[in-house]
Design goal:
This protein is mainly beta. The protein has helices at about 45-50, 75-80; strands spanning about 5-10, 15-25, 30-35, 50-55, 60. It contains two helices and five strands. Strands 3-2-1-4-5 form a five-stranded antiparallel beta sheet, with no helix packed on it.
């Protein structure tokens, strides 16, 4: 379970840290918010081309990283 301040790795190098987390009941997974940084800026391409991991209790787990929120404010997924 993600809480906060867990290291976030991109291609094996620390790129940021989580700020908060909770259990996602709809997806049956732990969800977290994180800040990441890159000298050339954080772009969708930079995110999509990296291998991401979050470290929890000294073990790294694969992570899916995205710019947009997990929340669907327009209800587009329900309407599809």
């Amino acid at each position: 379970m993600i809480y906060h301040e867990e290291p976030v790795y991109r291609n094996g190098v620390i790129a940021g840290a989580t700020t908060s987390g909770a259990w996602g009941h709809r997806v049956n997974r732990s969800l977290g918010l994180a800040y990441v940084k890159n000298a050339d800026g954080v772009t969708k391409e930079w995110i999509e081309t990296g291998k991401w991991e979050v470290e929890l209790a000294w073990k790294r787990y694969p992570a899916k990283v995205q710019l947009q929120s997990f929340y669907d404010p327009k209800g587009e997924r329900i309407k599809a």
